[in-house]
Write a structure and sequence with these properties.
This protein starts with 15 loop residues before the first strand and ends with a strand. The chain is built from 13 helices and 19 strands. The longest helix has 16 residues. Helix 13 links the parallel strand 17 and strand 18. With about 400 residues, the protein is an alpha/beta fold.
């Protein structure tokens, strides 16, 4: 198997071999009290400390023999391709708020940039006072308004793509602040030699589906949260694709509350073993699922069932075991908010978690789950844990 052929994921807990991360950079330094809400951050991270925490996260993965790929490095290499540069510059400048004159200038200016500098602008954005040309648009904008918005949520590489068996789904992000992320991720998959030949499914032009809502419960079984970010239409489209292409035999659509604390399914539940999840207990008993299967090319929609029963049936096991976050309702709520149940499985019974969620981590350890604890005081400002910050590219078959 050549390097470019090494991709594919069929579960949440198969031994992790390759993962894509994004080390926080200049885009985080663009966050201010005036724009952090629009850019979906609850606070303004200390960049230097966030980078230290992220470096420790990457080091922890490498210590477990996981290959770490960095999104920006892949993007820089991708932008060596003239076709890739032309594509991303066109999509970046295709914005009605720029006006014709500024759009024309930016197209020429971006075209002349070195791939490293172009990648920096595409991720960190461009302020009005960094544009040397004067147009009516630049004259009327505030000096610190962005003509190209920064992408601080690139940190959460889980959302913009989902690897499936031998192919990758480029997603369709719901929030305006994140739309350009899939343009960059999709560009890498389409043009980088590492991923040559990898079939692509879904895409940003289709109904909203975000990677944080997609859990690969077992080979052939996919759960997809439907809530603030993934729409019912997106779940239906995604189900048709994975079922129609034989990537799964069952998709479980899981309705979740449309709230900030539960923006994705993986803020409620993640897997730590082939038959075990860690879950926010307040929602566990009310969590339901609608089973989707394919019969003679038609989507068959089942009735609502309790999530744990539906999952166990689809997975072909007697019971899907659960480990609750926290020991009491207050602790559970605090540790869920701090992504206590947003774990990244490196393999069966081995998971990365934020060290601050002490009681959840203790419960995991009591149940025989080895926890690789990392600091996340600054990384957690965007409401995302180790799973959110990682896109598995290759896992061993479960």
């Amino acid at each position: 198997m050549t390097e470019r052929q090494r991709f594919g994921v069929d579960s949440e807990v198969g031994r992790l071999r390759t993962v894509m991360l994004h080390r926080p950079g200049a885009e985080i330094a663009r966050l201010t009290p005036r724009n952090n809400d629009a850019l979906l951050f609850d606070g303004i991270p200390w960049l230097g400390r966030a980078q230290e925490e992220h470096d420790a996260f990457a080091a922890a993965l490498r210590s477990q023999d996981v290959e770490v790929l960095y999104l920006v490095e892949l993007l820089q290499q991708t932008l060596e391709s003239a076709a890739a540069r032309e594509q991303v510059i066109a999509s970046t400048t295709d914005a009605l708020h720029l006006g014709d004159a500024l759009q024309t200038y930016l197209t020429g200016w971006l075209t002349d940039l070195h791939p490293t500098d172009l990648a920096a602008v595409l991720t960190a954005g461009l302020r009005n006072d960094e544009v040397p040309v004067r147009t009516l648009v630049t004259s009327l904008l505030r000096h610190d308004d962005f003509v190209i918005d920064p992408l601080p949520n690139l940190l959460f590489t889980r959302d913009s793509s989902v690897w499936l068996p031998d192919r990758v789904a480029v997603t369709s992000l719901a929030m305006p602040a994140r739309v350009r992320e899939t343009q960059l991720t999709g560009l890498v998959y389409a043009h980088h030699p590492r991923f040559a030949g990898a079939p692509l499914v879904h895409g940003p032009h289709l109904e909203h589906v975000e990677g944080g809502d997609v859990l690969l419960l077992a080979p052939g079984v996919v759960a997809i949260g439907v809530g603030e970010r993934t729409t019912p239409a997106g779940a239906e489209r995604f189900a048709r694709q994975v079922l129609g292409e034989g990537l799964a035999h069952t998709v479980l659509a899981v309705p979740i509350a449309q709230e900030r604390a539960t923006m994705h399914l993986d803020t409620i539940v993640t897997m730590v073993d082939v038959d075990t999840v860690v879950i926010f207990p307040t929602m566990a008993d009310d969590l339901e699922a609608v089973s989707l299967t394919l019969s003679d090319g038609e989507l068959v929609v089942g009735s609502r069932q309790p999530f744990f029963a539906a999952a166990a049936t689809a997975m072909g096991i007697d019971e899907l075991r659960r480990i609750d976050t926290g020991l009491d309702p207050v602790t559970a709520e605090r540790e869920q908010w701090d992504d206590g149940n947003n774990t990244l499985a490196i393999g069966p019974r081995l998971a990365v978690a934020y060290e601050r969620n002490e009681q959840t981590n203790a419960r995991l350890a009591e149940q025989g789950i080895e926890v690789v604890a990392i600091s996340g005081s600054e990384l957690g400002s965007g409401r995302g844990g180790p799973r959110c910050m990682s896109c598995p590219v290759l896992r061993d078959p479960a």
